[in-house]
Amino acid sequence: MDLIASICSPALLCQILVGLSRTTILFIVASGLSLILGVLRIPNIAHGSLYMIGAFMAFTVSKLFGGGTTGFWMAMVLAPLAVGLLSLIAERGIFSHLYEREHLMLLLLTFSFALIFGDLVKLIWGAEYRTLQLPESFKGPIPVESLPIPIYNMFLLIIGPLVAVGLWFLTNKTKIGKISRAAAVDREMVGAVGINVSWVFAFVFVIGCFLAGLGGALVAPIVNITLGMDHTLIMEAFLIVIMGGLGNVWGALLGALIFGLTQSLGILIWPQFGIVFPYAAVVIVLFVRPRGLLKSTW
Amino acid sequence: MKQETQGKEFWFIVGLFIVLLLAPFALKRFYIYLLGLIFVNGLFAMSLNLVLGYGGIFQFHHAVFYGVGAYGTALMITKLGQPAWLAFIVGPLLAAFVSLVMGVICIRLSKLYFGMLQISLGSLVWVVVYRWYDFTGGDNGIHGVTLPSLIASTKGAYYFTFLVTAASLLVMYLIVQSPFGRALQGIRDNPVRSEAVGMHVRLQQLVALVIAGFFAGVAGTLFVVIDNSAFPDMLFWTLSLEIVIMCLVGGWFTFFGPMLGGAIMVALRTFASTYTEYWTLIQGIIFMLVIIFLPEGVLGYILRKLKPHKEVTAKGEY
C-alpha cells in the first residue's frame, strides 16, 4: 500500500510522466521498426543507427539555422527527412535487389548497414558529446502548480499519441496504406493486380526510417548525443515490437508503455536493478504469449 | 573418388595440426596470442553453426553462452576461490544449463520468432551481468584471473587452447556425422516430414541447442585462459551477430567454414586496427559484400569450385 501511496504523490507522478515521455520516443522508433517488420519482413537492425543519425542531424541542422526556436523546429522537420532520404537511397540501391533472399540474410545485411552507419557517424561528427539547446519557450515546467513537469516532456507526451493516430490513419484509411497491408499478406497477389510492389515497399521502408529519424531528432534535446546511443535503443525497440506483436502499431504502443512503466517503477523500487525490470517484463509477457500481446500481422 | 578426397582432407588436417603444434616456436608472442584468439572465435562460431547451419535454428543470441561460460569460469576462480581446473569444467556446464533453460522456453517457436524470443532472454542475462556490480563487476568486467602455472604463460595458454579446441572440433565432427547429426539436418531441410517419420523434432533441436551452448561455453572458458578476463560485451547482441557473420563469411553448411571465417575476421581486425580506427566500417563493408556476392561463404565457394558435381546449397533453403 505504501508503494501505491507513494506512486500517487505528485513528485513521483511527475517522475513517472517524465519517464513516459521518454517512452514516447521509444514508441516512435519502435513503431517504425514494426511497420518495416510487418510489411517488408525485415528485422531492421540499422534502425537504431538511423535514430542516432537523426539525433546528430538535428544537432547540425539546428546549428546551421543558428539555434533558437527556428533552429529547433527546422531540426525537428529536416533531420527526419534527411534520414528518410538516406534510407530511400539504401533501399533503392541495395535492399530492393535482395528482397528475394531469406530473412536471415536481410537481417545480416541491415546489421552490416548498422556497422557502416555507426562508423560514418564517427567519421562525420567525431566521438565527442553533442547537445541540442532547447528554445526558451520549451524551457521550464508547465504552468500547473502541483506538477513540475518540463514543458518539453509534456510536448513529447502529446507527440507520441499523435504519431500513433497518424500511423493508424496512414495504414488503415489511405490507399497506399491499404495496399501495403495487402502486400504484407500476399505480395505476389498485389503484384498480379498491377501494383508496383517494389515502390510500395520503398514507401513503407522510408516511412519507417523517417520515424527512426524523428525519434532521434526528438530525443536530441534531452540526452547527450553520442556514439553508441543506437546499441541499447535498437534492442529495446526490438523487445517492444516483439512484446506488442510483430507489425502491429498498437502493439508497439502497448509494448512501449509496458517497457517504460516497468522501467520507471523498477528504478523507484530497486535503483540498481531498475534497468532489469523491463527486460524481465518482456520475458514474462513472451512466456505467456510467445507471439506478442496483440495480433501480429505475420 | 570420394575415398581419395577424404584421404587428402585427412592428411591436410594432420599437416595443419602439426604446423599449429610447432607454431609457437617460430612465432612472436603477439602472434601466438592471435592464433589463440582465432581458435576461440572459430570454436565459438562453429558451435553456433551446429545449430544455425546444421540445425536451421535461428540462434540469434549465441554470445550469451560464450559470456556465461567465460563469466562462470572467471567467477569460480576469482569470487568463489575454486581451483581453476574445476572452473574450466563448471563454465561450459553452466553455459549448457543456461542454454537448456532458454531452449525449453524458446523451442515452442520457430524461425524468426524463436530468434526474437532468444534475443529477449539473452538481453535479460546481459543486463543482469551488466548491472550486478557486486558479483560480476558490472561494465568493468573481471580482469586478472589467476590461472594454474602450467597454462599461465603465453605458450601454455596457447597449447591448452589449441588442444581443447582440437578435441572439441573432433567431438563436434563426430556429432555431426552421427545419426543424431543426420537427423538434425533432416529436420532443418524438412521439419514436417521428419515429424511424420517419427522424429521428436523439438527434443532433437533442444539437444542440439544444449550441445551448442556447451561448446560456446568452452570457447568462453578458453577466452579467459588466453586473456585472463571476462567483460559484459561478450554477452552483447552485436557480438552474436558478428559471429553469425563469421559463419557466413567462412561458409555455413561446411564443417570448417566458421573456423575459417573466424580466422579471417580476427586476422583482418587485428591488422586493420593497427592502421585505422574505422575497423567497424571496413567490417560492415566486408559483410555487405559477402552477403551480396558470396552467400555460400569462402569455404563453400572453394568447395563448389573443387567439386562442381557436389551440391553446396548456396542460398540456404531452410
Give a description of the structure:
The complex is a heterodimer of chains A (298) and B (318). With 298 residues, chain A is mainly α. Chain A has a domain at 21-127 and 146-227. Chain A is 73% helix and 0% strand. Chain A has helices spanning 2-8, 10-39, 47-64, 68-93, 103-125, 151-173, 175-185, 187-192, 197-219, 229-244, 249-269, 276-288. Chain B has helices at residues 2-26, 29-52, 63-78, 84-106, 111-131, 133-136, 149-152, 154-177, 179-189, 191-196, 201-227, 237-250, 257-275, 279-293, 297-306. Chain B has 15 helices and no strands. Chain B has a domain at 23-236. Chain B is mostly helical and 318 residues long. Chain B is globular and about 55 Å long.
Task: Give a short synopsis of this structure.
The complex is a heterodimer of chains A (298) and B (318). With 298 residues, chain A is an all-alpha fold.
